[in-house]
Amino acid sequence: MQKLATLVELLRYRAYNQPDKIAFTFLLDGETESNRLTYQELDRQARAIAATLQTLKATDTRALLLYPFSASLEFIAGFLGCLYAGVVAVTTYPPHPQQSMSRIQWMIAYTEASIVLTTTTLLNVLEGESVKTPDLSALRWLATDSISTDLAESWQEPAVSSNTLAYLQYSSGSTGTLKAVQVTHGNILHNEQMIQQAFEHSEKTIFGGWLPLYHDMGLVGNVLQPLYLGVPSILISPVAFIQKPFRWLQLISRYKVTTSGGPNFAYQLCIHRVTPEQRASLDLGSWEVAFNGAEPVRAETLKQFATTFEPYGFRFEAFYPCYGMAETTLFISGGLKTAPPTVRYIEKAALEQHRVAIAPEKQESNQAIVSCGKPWLGTKVVIVDTESLTPCPTGQVGEIWVSGPGVAKAYWNQPEETVQAFQAYLADSGEGPFLRTGDLGFFLDGELFVTGRLKDIIIIWGNNHYPQHIEQTVEQSHPALRHGCGAVFSVQIDGEEQLVIAQEVERSYLRNLNVDEVVEAIRIAVAREHIAEVYAVLLLKTGSIPKTSSGKIQRHICRARFLDGSLDVIIGHKLSCEGVVKGILEGV
Questions:
Q1: Phi and psi for 83 in degrees, rounded to 5?
Q2: In angstroms, rounded to a whole number, what is the distance separating the alpha carbons of residues 475 and 585?
Q3: pLDDT digit string (tens) for 420-460?
Q4: pTM for the full predicted model
Q5: In Å, how far are 425, 427, 428, 439 from 384, measured between CA atoms?
Q6: What is the mean pLDDT of residues 263-283?
Q7: With the C-alpha atoms ordered 135, 121, 145, 232, is the resulting torsion angle positive or negative?
Q8: CA 168 → CA 49, 91, 577, distances in Å?
């Protein structure tokens, strides 16, 4: 394939050279084919959407993409239609009908988006909500599934290059505020080349999966990598997967998928919720690359999954632990396709002091840690001491810094955060700029091991959550809860990260507190606003939550007291919000 500079050139190349080849297939209920797109059809839809955007004078503006999980192919066409028009796509998920529009309002104000792309069905819902909010009603709302493909003939190819901004990818970042990463066409194509080399993809590769397309792993992995390779991708919605994890493995078995993956929790769900009868119907022998990323990769999960599904064709060597983030487009490091994951044991006590002490075998005082491989295709990774800003010596844990063509240049409209994150230089040599990832890790025998995070980021179901965001949701969920007096943190339960909420109650409510009502309000609010389960809620006596002298919540102390049972608790509830989360997801 000739050297291409943009995604526009890439899809045009595919449409010309393999017009009738199936690009994307969507299974509406996770099992039944509902729609397909060839490369030629996708190109034509993208050109029609782009022509409409050009008519609306939207070139060089931002467009918010709000598509339900059931409209994956519409999302893909809308995303590429933006690029075909020279419009910057802003990826996000739509609100549940019962949610407030505050998040969308914030995103529109932040990105100064002038148009919203969605489906006809969702447009009817969103327009009804938007009329209540002046700044939303002033937007242009466009249902892309109602645009005639005949408009493709009036499309004008935009003046875009490898340096042109393609889309904004939301990231939690490492400083605690929601940010939009500016991803260029050049960033994307370099990262796709990295993934192709690292995963050893070819024209025989077949993709399949359930990852949300607004998420960087779903978009860059399950959509743009197949487009880069010119191979098919079969998609189901995350709702279908969460409802019935067997559908993911059934897809792999049915379509002979070779590359598929997701966060560690996805494999854990399959271990626990795919029945022996369902397993017996599977043939996972085609699965060559089972990538695992977006949250800590757990050695025990890899072992359990391989043991459970090996009788049905899965090979432990297929596991591909990897590391990346939105700020680097997606991929940073990964192993060798043919090699099994590298698992090492290190002493827990040493790790707490940011030292690496290799242990010979599994013991209670040791921790298993999985390698995330090596950087690829010119990407450089340095482990840096956060105080001296110099490279760490061997055997010391430090912050992971990254440089390379796949690294974005900035956050949208946040110059201070951009300087802090993207313009780091080593103090001794002046080398840079580097991206400061906010993650901690070390190198051992040339392989990168990620050990933790500098900030209090919580990862649930592969998504980053800042505790202060969830804390705000909690305190607003019921009038009995004290504002500024709650802590959110995570704990490891059976190898999985679980969400715990400790929240003070207003003194005036203590005597006649309706505990069930308050706890229900908390869990529903967290499920709706953050698509996250709550493992436990602890309602605390007024004035008892640990704070610093300046009034800041001490989350680490809260966590420690939760674990040793010393929090001043009125009552504690162990919960499962799975049903609530499913209901929320089904609504979008």
A1: -65, -35
A2: 23
A3: 999 999 999 999 999 999 999 999 999 999 987 776 667 77
A4: 0.83
A5: 10, 10, 11, 11
A6: 94
A7: positive
A8: 19, 7, 31
Tokens of 124: 């009817």
The Cα 97–Cα 125 span in angstroms is 7
With b for 16 or more beta-carbon neighbours within 10 A and e for fewer, the 292-305 pattern comes to bbbbbbbbbbbebb
Q: What is the pLDDT of residues 54-89, one digit of tens each?
A: 999 999 999 999 999 999 999 999 999 999 999 999
Rounded to an integer, what distance in angstroms lies between the CA atom of residue 9 and that of residue 157? 10
Residues 6+ apart with CB under 8 A from 11: 39, 42, 43, 46, 80, 84, 227
**Cis bond leading into 238, ω under 30°?**
no
User: Per the structure block, which two tokens stand in for 337?
Assistant: 């396709």
Phi-psi region of 445 (alpha: psi -120 to 50; beta: other; left: phi over 0): left
> CA-to-CA distance for 157 and 161, rounded, in angstroms?
12
Whether residue 6 is predicted with pLDDT greater than 90 in this model: the reply is yes
For 91, the token pair is 């990826």
What spatial distance separates the first Cα and last Cα of the chain, rounded to whole Å? Answer: 39
Phi, psi of 542 (to 5 degrees): -55, 130
Residue with tokens 């389960």: 533
Q: How many residues does the chain have?
A: 588
Burial of 69 (0-12, 13-18, 19+ CB in 10 A): buried
Q: Distances from the Cα of 469 to the Cαs of 157, 457, 458, 478, 555, in angstroms?
A: 41, 11, 11, 16, 14
528: which 2 tokens? 């709706």
Distances 407 to 145, 186, 196, 262, 496 between C-alpha atoms, Å:
33, 10, 17, 21, 30
What does each C-alpha distance from 16 to 156, 174, 303, 508, 510 come to in angstroms? 17, 42, 45, 70, 70
Q: At what angle do helices 246-255 and 264-273 cross, to 10 degrees?
A: 100
Contact assessment for residue 575 and residue 538, using Cβ atoms and an 8 Å cutoff: no
**pLDDT for 470 beyond 90:** no
- Calpha distance 309→178 (Å, rounded): 38
Percent over 90 (pLDDT), the chain: 65
SS3 of 310-333 = HHHCCCHHHEEEEEECHHHCCEEE
Within 8 A by CB and 6+ apart from 500, the residues are 488, 489, 490, 491, 534, 535, 536, 537, 538, 559, 562
**406 contacts 187 by C-beta, under 8 angstroms:** yes
**What is the spatial distance between Cα 161 and Cα 181, in angstroms, rounded to a whole number?**
18
Q: Tokens for 395, please give them.
A: 């055997």
Cα-based distances in Å from 184 to 265, 366, 435, 475: 30, 42, 16, 39
Secondary structure class of 104 (helix, strand, coil): helix
The rounded distance, in Å, linking the Cα atoms of 574 and 164 is: 49
Q: Per-residue pLDDT tens for 288-321?
A: 999 999 877 889 999 999 999 999 999 999 999 9
Question: Which of the 8 DSSP states describes residue 51?
Answer: H
DSSP of 335-386, one letter per residue? --TTSPPPEEEEEHHHHHTTB--EESS--TTEEEEEB--EE-TT-EEEEE-T
220-235 pLDDT tens trace: 999 999 999 999 999 9
**CB-CB contact of 234 with 27 (8 Å):** yes
Provide CB contacts within 8 A for 433, sequence distance 6+.
403, 422, 423, 424, 425
